[in-house]
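Our preliminary data section would be incomplete without showing what the modeling component actually yields. Below, a chain of 444 amino acids is followed by its predicted structure, encoded as C-alpha cells that our downstream tools consume directly.
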Amino acid sequence: MVSDEPPPRRRFVDLSPLRASPAFARLWIGSAVSGIGAQLTIVAVGLQIYELTASTLAVGLVGGIALLPMIVAGIWGGMLADAFDRRRVLIVSAVVAWASTAGLVVLAAVEAGRDPAEADVWPFYVFTTINTVSATIMGATRTAVIPRLLPPRLVSRAAALGGIAIGAQLTVGPALAGVLVAAVGFPITFAVDVVLFSAGFLGIVSLPRLTPEGATTKPGLASIREGVAFLRRAPNIRMSFLVDIVAMTFGRPFVLFPAVGAVAIGGGPVTVGILTAAAAAGTFLASLFSGPVGHVRRYGVAIGRAIQLYGLFVAAFGLVVLGGVTGLFGPVGPSFGEASPVALTLAAVALAGTGASDEVSAIFRSTMLLTAAPDAMRGRLQGVFTVVVGGGPRLGDLYAGITATAIALWFPPLAGGLAIIALIAVLLRVQPSFRAYDAMHPTP
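Predicted structure:
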C-alpha cells in the first residue's frame, strides 16, 4: 500500500533512489568511480603534453580540438539514444571510450623511452578527442535512462546524487593524477583509469533493455527537425538552457586563476589548486545537504534564484581580485609563502559559493528536463543539454580571457557576476511560464 503522507523532510542527501532501484544504484556507483578515472586522465593528458612540448597552447588545444566533435557527438548521440536500445548505445560508446584510454596507455609507454624533441603529440589529440566524443554520447544516454529506472518523485533526488559523484570526481581525480604521475609515471596513471572504467562498464552491462517509449525516428535530419520543433513548443526547457548559458558565459573565472595566483592573491600553482578545489567542494557540499530539494515545487523560481546567487558569488570573487591588484591585501608573489591568507580565504569561500549555487541550479534544471520531456525525446534533449553544459564554459573562458586582457583582471568576474543577476531577473520576468513551473505538473 502506498502512503499518501508526504516524505519526511531531510537535511542531508536522500539515498532513496539507490534503495528503490538496484539498476540505478549500480549505474550511479559505476559512473562515479569511472568518472574519477576520467578526471584523472584529463589532468594527466595535460601534464603529459606539457612535458613533451613545454607549451601552454598545446595543452589548451586538447579542449579546443575536441569542442566541435563534442557538439556533433551531443546532437548525434542524443538521436541514437532516441532511436535504439539505450543500453546498447551505452555499451558501444563505453567500449570505444575504454579503447581510447587504453590507447593513451600505449602512447605514454612509447613516449617514455623517447627524446621529447622527437615526440609526436598529435596521437594524444586523436585519442582524447575520441574519448570526449564517446563520453559525450555516454553522458547524454545515461542521463536519459534515469526516469526509466526511477519513479518521477525520485528524479530530483537522483540529480542530487549526481552532484555528489561530480564533486568527488573533481576533487579526487585531479589530486590522484598529480600523485600518480609523480610517483609511477604516465603509462601506469592512464592504466589506473582503464581499471576504474571497468566499474562504469559493469554498471552499464547490468541494465535492462531500454528501448525508447513511443514513436522513434531514425538518426538524421528528420530527427533533428523533430527535436527543434519540440524545443519551439517547450518554453520552460528552452529557458533552462538559456539561463545556464548566461551563467556560464559571464561567470567562469577559472581561466583567470593562474594570473590571480601570480599577481592578485599570490601563491602561484598552489593557489590555483586551492581555488579549483574550492568550487568542487561547494558542489559536493550542496549535494550532501540536498535533502530539501524533494520538497521544492517552483523549479523555475528556484533555478533563477540559484543562478542569481551564483552571480553574486562570482562578483564577490571579482571584488577580491580587485582588492588584490590594488594592493589592499598587501604585497604578494608567485610562491605559496607570498600568498595573502585573507584574500585566499575570501576567494575560496566565494568560489565554494559558486559551486554550491551552480549545483542547486543543476539539480532543478536536470530534473525539469527529465520529468517534463517525453521519453522518446529525452536523448536528443540530453544531447543539447550536454552541448550547453560543455560549450557554455568555453564561451565563458573566451569572455574572461578577452575582457581581462583588454580591461583588467578583476573586470570579468565582477562585471560578469552583476550581468548574471540582471539578465536572470529580466528572463524570469519575460517568461512567466518558467516562473510558474510546478514540479507536481511538469510541462515542457
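The chain has a mean pLDDT of 84. The domain at 232-444 is CATH 1.20.1250.20 (Growth Hormone; Chain: A;). Preliminary results of this kind motivate Aim 1 of the renewal.
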